[in-house]
Specification:
about 15% strand, Nucleotidyltransferase, domain 5, single chain, 10 strands, binds 5'-O-[(R)-(carboxyoxy)(hydroxy)phosphoryl]adenosine, binds zinc ion
Length: about 325
C-alpha cells in the first residue's frame, strides 16, 4: 500500500493506493483563498499546504481504514510546480518515510497525470499515445513501457491549454481558475459564433495558444463593452471550441503519423466536456479518467509511483524538488 502526497500548486492532496492500483482513499483540499487574487499566490499556497496537510493525510489514512503501519512506501510529487508548495508535501512525505524507515518514491507531476489512466478498475496498459493538458503543460508523448519509458512528441510553444482557458476566463470576467467556469458559460453559447485561430499552421505536433488568447482580446475590444457583455456566452463557446480544435488537430496528426490506435488523456483540461465529447469521436481505444482524476490529485501520484523505483532509507534524505522540467536537458522521460 502506497501513501502519496501532492502539493505542486494549490490543491493539498493525499491518497492511499494499493500495489494493484486500487484507490483506497483520495483526499483533495482545494485552496479557495487564491480566487480573490485572480491567480495562485505561491507564498500563500505554501502556507496553506502547511496548515492543511496533516489533516489531509490523516483523513486519507482514515478513509482507507489503515494506519501508517499498513503503508509500505511513501510517494510525493517532486516537480514541476511551485517550489515552496512542492517543498511542503515532499518534505512531509520524506519525513514520514524516514521516521518509519520506509522506501520513498519521488514522482514527476506529468508522469502522475499520465498514470491516472493506469488505476483500477480499468488500467490502460502501454503502449499508447498520451496527452497531458494541464494548467502548466501541454504534452504529447509516446508511452511505451510500464515505467518511465516516455518519449516526448510535442509540447506547447507558449501557453499551456489550461493557462489559455484561465486567461480567456479572466478576460470574460470569470474567476480563477477559470476553465470549469468558462465551460459552464460556453454551454449557453454558439461555438461557431466567432472564428478564432487554432494555430493549425504550426507544423508537427507542437501546440500554440498565444494566438487564440490575443484573438479573443481583440474580439472583445472590437465588440465594445456592452456588446461583449451581451455575447459573453458566444465568446466563451467559440474560445473553447478553438482550444479543443487546436488540441484535436495535433492529436489526429499524431495518431496518423505514428499509426497508433490507443490514446490516454490526462490533466485538468481533460475534465472539459467539449474536449471529452470530441475525444469520444476518435476512432481509437480511448482512456480519459473520471474528472476528479484529471485535475490534480494524489492517487495519480501513487499510481505513477507503482512504476518507479523505490529509494531506500536514507538514500532519499538529500533529494530536492524542482520547479520546471526541461525535457531537452533532463532527457526523454519526465522522472
Ligand atoms: O492538472 P491541473 O489540475 O493542474 C495543473 O497541473 O496545472 O489543471 C488545472 C487546469 C486549470 O488551468 C483549469 O482551468 C483547467 O485545468 N481546467 C479546465 C476544466 N477544469 C479544469 N479547463 C477546461 N474545462 C474544464 N472543465
Ligand atoms: Zn496537474
Amino acid at each position: 500500500m502506497i501513501l502519496a502526497i501532492e502539493t505542486s500548486c494549490d490543491d493539498t492532496c493525499a491518497a492511499v493506493v494499493t500495489a494493484s492500483g486500487e484507490i483506497r482513499a483520495n483526499v483533495i483540499s482545494s485552496q479557495e483563498v487564491h480566487s480573490r487574487f485572480g491567480g495562485v499566490v505561491p507564498e500563500i499556497a505554501s502556507r496553506q499546504h502547511l496548515t492543511l496537510l496533516p489533516a489531509v493525510v490523516d483523513r486519507a489514512l482514515a478513509d482507507a481504514g489503515v494506519t501508517l503501519d499498513d503503508i509500505d512506501a511513501v510517494a510525493a510529487t517532486r516537480g514541476p510546480g511551485l517550489v515552496a508548495s512542492l517543498l511542503v508535501g515532499f518534505s512531509a512525505a520524506k519525513a514520514i518515510a524516514a521516521a518509519r524507515r520506509l522506501p520513498f518514491i519521488p514522482v514527476n507531476h506529468l508522469s502522475g497525470h499520465l498514470a491516472a489512466s493506469r488505476l483500477a478498475p480499468d488500467p490502460f496498459e502501454p503502449p499508447y499515445l498520451g496527452m497531458v493538458v494541464s494548467g502548466g503543460h501541454t504534452l504529447l508523448v509516446d508511452v511505451r513501457g510500464p515505467g518511465a519509458e516516455l518519449r516526448l512528441l510535442g509540447s506547447t510553444l507558449d501557453d499551456a491549454a489550461g493557462e489559455a482557458f484561465d486567461k480567456g476566463a479572466r478576460l470574460l470576467g470569470l474567476g480563477y481558475p477559470g476553465g470549469a467556469a468558462l465551460e459552464r458559460l460556453a454551454r449557453e453559447g454558439d461555438p461557431e459564433a466567432f472564428e478564432l485561430p487554432t494555430a493549425s499552421r504550426v507544423p508537427g505536433l507542437d501546440f500554440s495558444f498565444a494566438g487564440v488568447k490575443t484573438a479573443l482580446l481583440y474580439k472583445v475590444r472590437d465588440l465594445g463593452d456592452a456588446e461583449a457583455e451581451r455575447r459573453r456566452a458566444d465568446l466563451a463557446a467559440s474560445f473553447q471550441h478553438a482550444i479543443v480544435e487546436a488540441l484535436m488537430i495535433r492529436l489526429r496528426r499524431a495518431l496518423k503519423e505514428r499509426d497508433v490506435r490507443r490514446l490516454a488523456v490526462g490533466g485538468g483540461v481533460a475534465a472539459n466536456g467539449a474536449l471529452r465529447a470530441e475525444l469520444a469521436q476518435l476512432d481509437v481505444e480511448l482512456d480519459v479518467p473520471p474528472r476528479e482524476l484529471c485535475t490534480d490529485n494524489a492517487a495519480m501520484i501513487a499510481s505513477a509511483a507503482r512504476f518507479s523505483s523505490n529509494l531506500r532509507y536514507p538514500e532519499y534524505l538529500g533529494l530536492d524538488v524542482f520547479a520546471t522540467w526541461d525535457h531537452q536537458a533532463d532527457g526523454a522521460a519526465p522522472m
